[in-house]
Design a protein that fits this description.
Elements: H1 11-17, H2 22-33, E1 44-45, E2 53-56, E3 62-65, E4 71-75, E5 80-83, E6 91-94, E7 99-101, H3 107-134, H4 146-170, H5 173-188
The structure holds zinc ion.
């Protein structure tokens, strides 16, 4: 069962809720903004879903996300983490404030994905258009509108499929987060 964890319930909001004096609050906010190194005592925003927090797994040189449940191996010397339970070897470097992507996509795989995407979007729509062009409906027939609607549906649905393929390939954070939300919603039913 996935427990959605808000990334807003950080020490900052706790500080706002408490009747702290202004200088203390200021100090807390500054310390939060100051760059800090990657270590197993702190938690960090998850680089995959950009929603959960990753924190160290007990007795392991690894982090786990509280939201999407991805597991990362960490290299504290290089300040990098790499996701281990994913088809793609995605990795990021911690620069003290945020994550920077360090993975280089497999160029041949990326080329295949883009080629397949373009073919999937254009080819079926082109066939439908060609059929409507070669065999146009009678101008005043009741179904004259049909080829255009069919062309729109073909193009739209293939575009949707390709968007999913690309979101999966690039592991877009908004896509990963919505997938986790959908899964937890389905589990609750
Ligand atoms: Zn996550």
């Amino acid at each position: 069962m996935v427990q959605p964890v808000s990334d807003e319930d950080s020490p900052t909001s706790a500080a706002f809720g408490q009747p702290t004096t202004k200088p203390v609050l200021q100090a807390k906010l500054t310390s939060k903004r100051e760059p800090h190194s990657l270590n197993f005592q702190d938690s960090y925003l998850c680089p995959v879903c950009r929603h959960g927090q990753i924190s160290a797994l007990t007795l392991m040189d690894a982090f786990a996300c509280s939201f999407c449940r991805h597991i990362f191996t960490a290299n504290l010397q290089n300040q990098t983490v790499q996701v281990v339970d994913s088809a793609q070897p995605l990795s990021w470097r911690w620069n003290g404030r945020s994550w920077q992507s360090t993975h280089r996509d497999d160029p041949s795989l990326t080329a295949v994905v883009w080629f397949a995407s373009i073919v999937l979007v254009l080819l079926p729509a082109a066939i439908v258009w060609l059929m409507a062009y070669i065999f146009p409906p009678l101008p005043n027939s009741a179904w004259a509108w049909f080829p255009n609607v069919w062309l729109g549906c073909t193009f739209g649905i293939h575009l949707l499929m390709v968007s999913w393929l690309l979101a999966e390939h690039y592991q877009l954070s908004i896509y990963v987060a919505s997938r986790v939300r959908l899964r937890s919603w389905l589990n609750r039913r």
